[in-house]
Amino acid sequence: MYSDALKNGRKIFAVAPMIDWTDRHCRYLHRQISRHALLYTEMVVADAIIHGPRDRLLGHDAAEHPVALQLGGSDPAKLAEALRIAEAYRYDEINLNVGCPSDRVQSGTFGACLMLTPETVASCVAAMKAISKAPVTVKCRIGVDEQEPEEALPDLMTRVLDAGADAIWIHARKAWLKGLSPKENREIPPLDYDIVYRMKQRWPDVFIGINGGIQTLDRAAAHLAQVDGVMLGRAAYQNAAILADVDHRFYGEPAVEADWNGLRDRMMAYVERHIGNGGRLQHVARHMVGLFTGLPGSRRYRQILSTDANKPGAGPEVIAAAFAAVDFTGERERVSA
Questions:
Q1: Does the chain have fewer CB atoms within 10 Å around its N or its C terminus?
Q2: What is the CA radius of gyration of the chain?
């Protein structure tokens, strides 16, 4: 995937992995809006795959592809064992989390903590490459705590590339392991996109993607003039309608009006299947709440999904009622911004 993208000058647009958000229902929704965007799972810890409910952690709908599995861990042997299990689920990419600063991750000495031990990251990548048939990539920060990014980031990149990493996604902020919450770590450390651009200039033959604070497709396009991939997180989740123009702007598809009625029908069918398998409407509907932010009727849309989806026996008809509340006039200009 990444070598072909570099060879053919193709850019990759991705939706970032987000804990508690990018589960299989979220990814299914996003795939109905964009055929080509690369989707990521939530971070799944290697120990959980080894000892936990594998189908629940790794299962996904065939429609989600291309989809990447993000792993958390710092033990090369455990990551390799988790990958042996995950191989049966046929993910298109395996990504190692070297950027999450949460307390839960720090207690396990992985995520952003790994920026402090780049030799460990390299060992993990080498172990993963020995198992995985899919590309193995790293998602990191530019540094943590008192590290100097101009030294720490190239050191990490050199080591993981020597270990065989196929691509590197860089969140263009430091992470502070002490004193800032995960939310604050997404907002307070200043963004430094230029250092990511410099890494691309230093490694022109390596796929390098950028993440962090990117809010619109226009900004995404500007970054893609400098690097190979762009990754949106909360902007894509909180207003998923933005994805409706991704295939046209970044993958050469014809410009067409978004088929929101078709989306409604596909999500209703998906919900019906999910409920039939013992699930609840809310498992899916919670990811749809921000879909039409800013459109007339979006407030009523949110109210219906937020309240009626939680009621006993709620089914696909709630989605139909919510969509009926929205006025889609002028939608095209909004999501293209």
A1: C
A2: 20
Alpha carbon 130 to chain centroid distance?
24
pTM: 0.94
Active site residues: 100
Q: Phi and psi dihedrals of 223, rounded to 5?
A: -65, -35
Structure tokens at 13: 């647009």
Q: Can you name the residues that pair with 39 across neighbouring β-strands? A: 15, 67
| Backbone phi, psi, residue 145, to 5° | 50, -125
Neighbours of 257 (CB within 10 A): 9
- The DSSP element (H or E) to which 207 belongs, if any, is strand 207-211
What's CA 334's distance to the chain center, in Å? 22
280-325 residue pLDDT tens: 999 999 999 999 988 999 999 999 999 999 999 999 999 999 999 9
Residue 151 is encoded by which pair of tokens?
Answer: 């030294």
Q: Residue 235: in which H helix or E strand, if any?
A: helix 234-238
The gap between the terminal CA atoms of the chain, to the nearest Å, is 28
